[in-house]
Recover the amino acids of this structure.
């Protein structure tokens, strides 16, 4: 399995359109990296440059230390799974998987061994003689993956492979791809616009926006410590609530901000003295806002609407005519109705702070570390039972 | 008189079958008459019978024999087959370049090809004659192959370019990732998928080359190298005033049968070849 290094990788069309701007990235052998970003951010272009289907305008790409900018895709030793599967319609499933191996002039016995092994892993054995048009979407996707596996490539590239599948199939294929990675221990680079796929599949996520890297990190690191507003709002659904505020007092362990409603909020985040008095944004995720008695709540708001999902409830709070409604998520049923006035509190340890340019002020790391690493039995972040507000009779 | 739904449906069916019958008769009758005539000799040729009464098979024997079209059949077959082979090879590679490769002036090349195909063949005849003579191909099958390829190419290039444009780019990219070079992509990935359209264009080029008269008359002078349309035109009877109709008809039937056989064999492919580009498959 191969290690990939990108050094100041750059792509431009013509003189002016710079689509990929000096990207540096290091992918270790056997790692599952997901490149995620909104439409048009350049993630597919980046993947195609790694594959060799697009020319590299500047910078260097190294696979296992070797400079590969000018190599063809098969010389680089990559296997690619396309969004639209791209199966050869005139060939059977077996032939589709064997095509690349035949071109490489492998002995027939070796070809048969590899194709049958890939078919076994993906449970395609009964389908080997069928044509692609006789297969369902999920089966076609598996054949596309099988075609890549049979080549035993150094690097697996997935280009939004689940976009063409329905929701239920997507969940199933996600698990299969994760199982495949555990089994093959291969280096995988996976491109998607769906942050759920990123969060569930990746060992590390690369967030791309308009051609440059916003942040690289493990899923929980991106979730708990986003480097800027873009990452904070891209990762996590529903989005993080952002509130404009003013930095009233800067400090090395604690800062105080004043929100638009005039209330002060203390956050355990270090800010430089130079930022004092300037505009900042306070961020807090929907599941971290806690209810409080209306009488002594620091913040009050009207409920615009309530969404009951069955297992959780989303409340949308009025944020004034200019702002987007704030979202509060409770992991259970709720009795709050639209029109109620609720009181809420913003726990300081869950607050994020972003400066005027959108960059995050560093938050303190939690001592107990990654909840995943802590294993079963580690105390989860407690959700407080919503205390009944006075509005409910 | 108001008809019920069932009666109206039946009436519609009846009209359709009637129309089909009329069209069928109009199309098939000349050929049927040719077959009938080929089975008669002498004065019987001019009787107006619609069913075969006599069976003079010697017309066919003569047709295929020395004075007949046996040798010309072979010549025509060779010319048409080689024309189709060269035409398809050149046009599939041209179609790939015109449909898949971005180069400057691509639009103008396509337009030029279309314009060139609109030239009337007779206008180019004298120029082609000079070219054929210069290349030393006069009175050989090579002259005909050259001319027919030249005239079939614009049509085949256009049809194949249109079909190739409809093929998805990911297919080509998947083949590149699999390690396929340009030639492998064209022959092992694109050509099989484009099968129906290749059959259609090939067949149309074959028919065009088979039936062509003017160039065959101009460029071939000796009996051994003649192709079928000219050979039939040269069939002579016992005196200069008599046209050997039975003989001619027998030769015509013999000459038409291969084309009909080809079309019958490939008829499913022809239809799908013409309509394949219409719906995204």
């Amino acid at each position: 399995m191969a290690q990939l290094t990108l050094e100041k990788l750059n792509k431009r069309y013509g003189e002016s359109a710079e689509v990929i701007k000096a990207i540096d990235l290091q992918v270790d052998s056997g790692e599952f990296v997901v490149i995620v970003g909104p439409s048009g951010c350049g993630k597919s272009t980046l993947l195609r440059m790694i594959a060799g289907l697009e020319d590299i305008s500047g910078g260097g790409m190294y696979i296992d230390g070797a400079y590969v900018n000018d190599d063809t895709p098969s010389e680089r030793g990559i296997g690619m799974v396309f969004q639209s599967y791209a199966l050869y319609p005139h060939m059977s499933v077996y032939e589709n998987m064997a095509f690349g191996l035949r071109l490489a002039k492998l002995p027939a016995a070796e070809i048969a061994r590899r194709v049958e092994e890939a078919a076994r892993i993906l449970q395609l054995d009964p389908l080997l003689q069928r044509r692609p048009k006789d297969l369902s979407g999920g089966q076609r996707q598996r054949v596309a993956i099988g075609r890549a596996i049979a080549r035993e490539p150094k690097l697996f590239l997935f280009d939004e492979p689940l976009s063409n599948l329905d929701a239920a199939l997507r969940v199933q294929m996600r698990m299969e791809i994760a199982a495949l990675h555990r089994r093959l221990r291969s280096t995988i680079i996976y491109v998607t616009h769906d942050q759920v796929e990123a969060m569930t599949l990746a060992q590390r996520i690369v967030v791309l926006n308009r051609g440059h890297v916003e942040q690289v990190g493990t899923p929980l690191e991106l979730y708990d410590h986003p480097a800027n507003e873009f990452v904070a709002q891209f990762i996590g659904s529903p989005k993080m609530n952002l509130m404009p505020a003013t930095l009233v007092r800067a400090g090395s362990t604690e800062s105080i901000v004043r929100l638009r409603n005039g209330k002060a909020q203390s956050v355990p985040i270090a800010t430089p003295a130079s930022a004092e008095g300037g505009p900042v944004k306070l961020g807090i995720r929907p599941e971290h806002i806690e209810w409080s008695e209306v009488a002594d709540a620091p913040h009050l708001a009207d409920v615009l609407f309530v969404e009951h999902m069955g297992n959780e409830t989303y409340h949308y709070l009025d944020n004034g005519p200019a702002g987007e409604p704030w979202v509060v998520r409770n992991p259970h049923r709720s009795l709050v109705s639209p029109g109620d006035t609720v009181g809420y509190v913003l726990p300081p340890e869950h607050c994020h702070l972003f400066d005027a340019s959108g960059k995050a002020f560093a938050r303190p790391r939690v001592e107990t570390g990654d909840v995943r690493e802590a294993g079963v039995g580690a105390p989860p972040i407690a959700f407080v039972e919503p205390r009944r507000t006075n509005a409910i009779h | 008189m108001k008809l019920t739904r069932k009666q109206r449906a039946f009436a519609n069916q009846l009209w359709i079958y009637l129309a089909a019958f009329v069209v069928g008769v109009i199309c098939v009758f000349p050929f049927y008459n040719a077959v009938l005539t080929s089975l008669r000799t002498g004065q019987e040729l001019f009787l107006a019978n619609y069913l075969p009464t006599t069976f003079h098979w010697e017309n066919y024997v003569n047709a295929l024999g020395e004075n007949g079209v046996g040798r010309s059949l072979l010549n025509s077959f060779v010319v048409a087959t080689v024309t189709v082979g060269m035409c398809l090879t050149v046009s599939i590679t041209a179609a790939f370049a015109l449909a898949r490769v971005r180069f400057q002036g691509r639009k103008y090349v396509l337009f030029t090809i279309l314009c060139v195909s609109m030239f009337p063949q007779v206008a180019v005849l004298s120029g082609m004659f000079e070219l054929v003579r210069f290349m030393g191909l006069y009175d050989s099958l090579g002259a005909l192959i050259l001319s027919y390829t030249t005239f079939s190419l614009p049509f085949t290039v256009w049809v194949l370019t249109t079909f190739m444009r409809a093929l998805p780019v990911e297919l080509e990219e998947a083949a590149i990732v699999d390690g396929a070079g340009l030639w492998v992509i064209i022959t092992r990935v694109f050509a099989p998928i484009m099968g129906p359209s290749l059959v259609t264009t090939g067949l149309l080029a074959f028919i065009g080359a088979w039936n062509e008269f003017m160039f065959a008359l101009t460029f071939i002078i000796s009996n051994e190298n003649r192709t079928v349309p000219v050979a039939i035109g040269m069939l002579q009877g016992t005196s200069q005033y008599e046209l050997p109709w039975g003989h001619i008809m027998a030769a015509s039937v013999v000459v038409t049968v291969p084309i009909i056989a080809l079309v019958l064999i490939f008829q499913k492919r022809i239809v799908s070849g013409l309509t394949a580009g219409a719906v995204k498959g």
In short: Chain B touches chain A through 16 residues (CB under 8 Å). The mean pLDDT of chain B is 84.
